[in-house]
Amino acid sequence: MAGDYPDDLRYTTSDEWVRREGDEMVSGITSFAAEQLGDVVYLQLPESGNHYDAGQTYGEIESVKAVSDLYFPLAGTVAAANADLDQNPGLVNEEPYGLGWMLRFRPDNPGDYDSLLSAQDYEQSTKDRH
Amino acid sequence: MTEPLIFELSSPGRKAYSLPALDVPEVPLTELIPEPYLRKTPAQLPELSEPDVVRHFTHLSKLNYSIDSGFYPLGSCTMKYNPKINEVAVSQPGWKDIHPLQAQSTVQGALRLMVELQELLAAISGMDAFTLQPAAGAHGELTGLFIIQAYHRARGEMRDQIIAPNSSHGTNPASAAMIGAQLVTVGTDERGRVNIEELRSLVNERTAALMLTNPSTLGLFEEDVVEMADIVHRAGGLMYYDGANMNAIMGVARPGDMGFDVVHLNLHKTFTTPHGGGGPGAGPVGVKQFLAGYLPVPVPTRRDGVYILDADRPESIGKVRSFYGNFGMLVRAFTYIRRMGSDGLGQVSRDAVLAANYVRARLNDLYPQAYPGTNMHEVVLSGRGLREHGVRTLDLAKRLMDYGFHSPTVYFPLIVDEALMIEPTETENKDTLDAFVDAMRAIAAEAEVNPEVVTSAPHSAPVGRLDEARAARKPNLRWRPGGDQEPAQVPPAGEEKPLGV
Amino acid sequence: MSYLPHTPEERDEMLRAIGVESVDDLFSNVPEGLRSGPLPIPQGISEMEVLRLLQSLASENLNLDTHPGFLGGGAYHHYIPAAVGAITGRSEFYTSYTPYQAEVSQGTLQAMYEYQTMVAELTGLDISNASLYDAATAITEACTIAINQTRRERVAVLGGLNPEYRKVIETYMHAQDFEVLDIPETWTLDPADLEAALDDTIAGVIVQSPNFWGALERMPQLTDAAHAHGALVIVVGNPLSYALLTPPGEYSADVAVGCGQPFGIPLSYGGPYLGIMATRAGLERRLPGRIAGETVDNTGKRGFVLTLQAREQHIRREKATSNICTNHQLMALAATVYLSLMGKQGIRDLANQCVQRAHYAAGRLVEIPGFSLAFEAPFFNEFTLRAPVPAAEVNRFLLSRGIVGGVDLGTVSGDMGDCLLLAFTEMNSRQQIDDLVTTLHQLQPQTAAEFVAGATGGAS
Hints:
- The complex is a heterotrimer.
- Chain A has helices spanning about 30-35, 85, 90-95, 120-130; strands at about 10, 15-20, 25-30, 40-45, 50, 55-65, 65-70, 75-80, 105.
- Chain A is built from 4 helices and 9 strands, in the order E-E-E-H-E-E-E-E-E-H-H-E-H.
- Chain A has a single domain (about 10-125), classed as CATH 2.40.50.100.
- By secondary structure, chain B is of the alpha/beta class.
- Chain B has 3 domains: about 5-55, no CATH class; about 85-340, 3-Layer(aba) Sandwich (Aspartate Aminotransferase, domain 2), CATH 3.40.640; about 345-455, Aspartate Aminotransferase, domain 1 (Alpha-Beta Complex).
- Chain B is about 35% helix and about 10% strand.
- Chain B has 15 helices and 12 strands.
- Chain B has helices at about 30, 50-60, 85-90, 95, 110-125, 135-155, 170-180, 195-200, 225-235, 255-260, 325-365, 395-400, 430-450, 450-455, 470-475; strands spanning about 130, 160-165, 180-185, 205-215, 240-245, 260-265, 285, 300-305, 305-310, 380, 410, 420.
- In chain B, the strands form 3 sheets. In chain B, strands 1-7-6-5-4-2-3 form a 7-stranded mixed beta sheet, sandwiched between helices.
- The two termini of chain B are about 50 Å apart.
- In chain C, the strands form 3 sheets. Chain C has a 7-stranded mixed beta sheet, with helices on both faces. A 4-stranded antiparallel beta sheet of chain C has the order 10-11-13-12, with helices on one face.
- The longest helix of chain C is centred in the C-terminal third of the chain and has 37 residues, at about 330-365.
- Chain C has helices spanning about 10-20, 25, 45-60, 80-90, 90-95, 105-125, 135-150, 165-175, 190-195, 220-230, 315, 330-365, 390-400, 430-440, 445-455, and strands spanning about 125-130, 155-160, 180-185, 200-210, 230-235, 255-260, 275-280, 290-295, 300-305, 370-375, 380-385, 405-410, 420-425.
- Chain C contains 15 helices and 13 strands.
- Chain C is about 40% helix and about 15% strand.
- In chain C, strand 2, helix 8 and strand 3 form a beta-alpha-beta unit.
- By secondary structure, chain C is an alpha/beta fold.
- In chain C, helix 4 packs antiparallel against helix 12 (about 330-365), helix 6 packs parallel to helix 12 and helix 7 (about 135-150) crosses helix 8.
- Chain C is globular and about 85 Å long.
- Chains in contact: A-B, A-C, B-C.
- At the B-C interface, helix 2, helix 3, helix 4, helix 5 and helix 6 of B face helix 1, helix 2, helix 3, helix 4 and helix 5 of C.
């Protein structure tokens, strides 16, 4: 799945993707990040109602061999976290842009979305890191 | 080839124990201890005969790789041969059957051994005083940091930053966190040495210490160590030596002469106490004279021809464990050091360095050295060349098992892509080193022509490759009676509310 | 040299392969100014000589193999069945490395899993780690669990905690500027007094039972009192006592820690011992140290691995639950073999022997004029005896008769100079106990006074 970055999403340099769904936005980690981590075994996700600034740590993701902070992509308030990941954290590896989503949130300023990276720009940023 | 769990071998009523007859008048238990204090249901321990117990654990032992059966080229772990005399020496009743709270007059031999071991370690490392209390290397690190913190606090300075290289052992930052300090990482330069200019920019009035391994985890001697010590000392910080790699430099150079103020040594690495499948170890800490007052109490010492435990040390950081140390490990290390002596230990380091350079010279065409050049007792190579065939360093590690070898340390240090950290030690003969090199080369060839045989390894170990993700996702951490293998419930750590709130 | 295999010819071959002239060339990166020359320690000696040296040093110690003794206070003289040493002495166990490469470490990993199960059974709790250094450091780790779990920064310690352990807590908590609240008690604590001493800033309450003086605390009530304030309850105890006494899990304690030394581990002058730690479900991601878990291999066969490793320092570095790397695996193995040999019934029989012998001794000792039990609370295998003379003198007198006495509580608490802590195990035969009583009969106050006078006068 590496190198698979859907065009209809926006990205951050800290490997989050964001999808606009009406007033809300959905976020998760990219296939690149999921592959770097390896088999995800555990996630610590926030409660609804928590507010975070862009780039602020909101949770943690653990794989067998690594642990990483999760960063809020745009300033906003958590509407829901993906409860399915509790029982099935492997969804992050299997479907990083689908069932492996992590957050649904309401952005403070929906216009911030446009400041995120396009798929092409994100892909370029991963190449620099390989 | 698997062995049932001991609980699955249990049969009600079988016994392996024998107790002396109860020769005092027996009183019903409830007359001695009131009912509410007593356990309602017995602990479900297994029930077997002695031969069944022995056979079970003997079967288990055969599923293990060990130093006595083969070669462990594990970088930074110093898996050398553990001389048998160590085990015989420690089995004397005069060592085994002495209680830590016996009158000091009745344990003069034990106290003398500790005092003499302190002196030997001080001479080997160039320090002035030692404590033998720490139970392991990481515990030694923590003890050293307690001492450094106490020193700064006594001077009225609140220094809360510990600097460590990005190649450092994971215990360094974790130990720093345990004294409430912040870890500051210093980078590595193009030669694989600490970036001294960066270090210069990082030290300041908040610097408590620089933690350094020398030779580093890259197997390279930090040539600028004296200058680094000068930079840190000028800023008011102290120098901490992680002794994991002491096996490289005995009789060559001493941390105490390099400017280090605090040192920990690993008796289970350099001084041949057995690893025991993960412990116990021992991590004595040495200091320069100006820090001696901070050592943990009690300090075994000699006074007026008598050996005592000196607890009257007002500046001491206190105790870091119960009693005086992993004494059994101290006896073994003392035995080894006296057996080897000055000449022997010097030869140990020379042979360890020779072996590591030999392995490098024979492998670095296929597995490039991370930072080229002469290395010390270990060498860090990279398995990145295998990646184009879809083979990872982890696969190489598993495939080595099929050739009869334990894996090197892999994926560490973190700054090297597909790191392979190899420490052959001085006790492996040339035939073994050659066979290991041949296996490494054969696997590189397999990766090209038949990568599946590598990626699906091991093929001849007691079990195939184990599913670590499954183990972590649905933790099953204990057997349950009646085969009820319900996994432990693992709610997210942060989600749970404090009790009663 | 015995452990160094290379012949001069082989060394030369290796140097040629490397492409250098001499071994000295390999050290060219070590600056001249740092070269130390030969180590300033004695030259090596033969195996026979080193053994004689160690035997001679060992003989300067008075050992409990040849002398009866009644010392406890955190370390106990139990018989170690021969099969324990036969297993821990197998080099496949004692010369193996930490089982990170699980496929060639199934022996160690399965033994770990079996150990965890036995500790969970004994303590009545859900999850055990694979062991820590000792009881004292295990308590400090438990304090960290409580602090992280409750986000509070104070821990409370009852006065009956072993003073060795109390000192270690001080060192660790002081370094992180966490506060320790001492709750004094007289032999045992009234749960109402605990309730009153606590407030909602306490992360954890550390209670030892049997406590340092030997007395059993009212654990269920103390636990409820601590929970009422939102604090975690950290129980310290001799794990052998759980064979007969209510285990921590039964009264909803959060963490149990203790020293597993009674399970087949020699006294060895204080170490290596075994730090036991078990917790209730829900705290496993806060556990320090290694944990083994069950899984399957690529063919579906059962196997074991180190798991939840993302808690640990080699992955999480400064954010790890602890800096701990080691577990005392060989000691945990000894305990696993020991508990397998004792089994469900044997461990109860053994504990009962300890209880019976201790109570027999207590009954006989208080018949001696001037001697009495310090407390009325129930006890397990250890109790505090008040003597008519300083405990130090009692011990000196006993030693002059070839008996190793008890722990002189005057050494840990100024107002307990007349208190002696005595422990009893299956090793203390009725004959030994009767000899102790008979000998102490000879230490009538008058004799004692003379003895003291004699001792201070320099004669003996």
